[in-house]
Design brief:
By secondary structure, the chain is mainly beta. It is built from one helix and nine strands; from the N terminus they run βββββββββα. The strands form two sheets. It has a five-stranded mixed sheet, with no helix packed on it. A four-stranded antiparallel sheet has the order 4-3-6-7, with no helix packed on it. About 5% of the residues have low confidence.
């Protein structure tokens, strides 16, 4: 049995696939338990929670980092899949503002009308 010599990283958000990167030699992910994990070709299958932070990956001698919100990590057959709400700012790890849902807009409107109604009396 021969092991493949590279990894594939796929990152999904609720809107679908946002990153698909092949031919990686190493991927580092911050896990929810507070420790990072280093993933190399041939890694055992794993499902784990992640925290907001940078995902670092190496192709050849080049290392790249992209920050993501907390999510779920799945490793299987040299494929690393991350399910997340999306990318987060790498500067100071400030969360990006998610797109408002219809529910959020309705609640804001309701709260504003209630506040206006109470102050007009």
């Amino acid at each position: 049995m021969t092991l493949e010599k590279s990894l594939t990283l796929k990152v999904y958000t609720p809107n679908g696939l946002i990153h698909s990167i092949e031919d990686l030699s190493c991927i580092n992910v911050p896990l929810a338990n507070g420790y990072p994990i280093s993933i190399h070709p041939g890694h055992a299958p794993l499902i784990a929670g992640t925290i907001q932070g940078p995902i670092r990956f190496r192709r050849g001698h080049q290392e790249t980092a992209v920050s993501f919100h907390a999510g779920i990590l799945k490793i299987r057959n040299n494929e690393v899949i991350i399910f997340t709400a999306g990318e987060s700012s790498q500067d100071n790890m400030v969360k990006t503002i998610p797109e408002k849902t219809e529910y959020d807009r309705l609640m804001e409107t309701l709260v504003t009308k209630l506040q206006n109604g109470l102050t007009n009396k």
